[in-house]
Amino acid sequence: MTVRPLRLIGDPVLRMPCNPVTTFDAPLEALVTDLLDTVRLPGRAGLAANQIGVALAAFSYDVDDRFGYVLNPRLVETDGEYDGDEACLSVPGVHARRLRAAYAHVEGVDLDGRPVSIEGTGELARCLQHETDHLRGELYIDALTGERRRDAMRMLRRARV
């Protein structure tokens, strides 16, 4: 089991769009294994490759008894609204209510380049959206506005003291 250290807010790799996976080889398999091992720790729901310092379009998830990974994920459909608390491993000590779609559908490929499709509601939908945002170089706090943003920024300042 290899649990990789997390990159935290301020690390440039979190702000760069990730490159698509084009080479399906042993190093990619090792990356996926590390993503899966790292997300399995208690209290974790999803993990994008750039959160462990690799700028490739890949993420793992462990939500509501659903566990897996997606390479080259694309958010292909969302529906409804789901407002709830959100946090991020790369922004420790901060949480905020964030409006997301209540349903999300992601398509991508597996280690063999075969198509995969994951869809979910509630927290799984939130995770799928959150991780695909990471792969575009976005953090969940970027979309916060008003009092929600002010509260999150206060938490972030306190967490960094």
TrEMBL record:
Binds 1 Fe(2+) ion. It comes from the Bacteria. Its EC number is 3.5.1.88. Keywords: Hydrolase, Iron, Metal-binding, Protein biosynthesis. Fe cation binds at C88, H130, H134. The active site is at E131. The keyword Manganese does not apply. Its cofactor is Fe(2+). It holds the Pfam family Pep_deformylase. The keyword Manganese does not apply. Transmembrane segments: none annotated. InterPro entries: Peptide_deformylase, Peptide_deformylase_sf. It catalyses: N-terminal N-formyl-L-methionyl-[peptide] + H2O = N-terminal L-methionyl-[peptide] + formate. Belongs to the polypeptide deformylase family. PANTHER family: PEPTIDE DEFORMYLASE, PEPTIDE DEFORMYLASE, MITOCHONDRIAL. Removes the formyl group from the N-terminal Met of newly synthesized proteins. Requires at least a dipeptide for an efficient rate of reaction. N-terminal L-methionine is a prerequisite for activity but the enzyme has broad specificity at other positions. This is Peptide deformylase. The lineage of its organism: Bacteria, Bacillati, Actinomycetota, Actinomycetes, Pseudonocardiales.
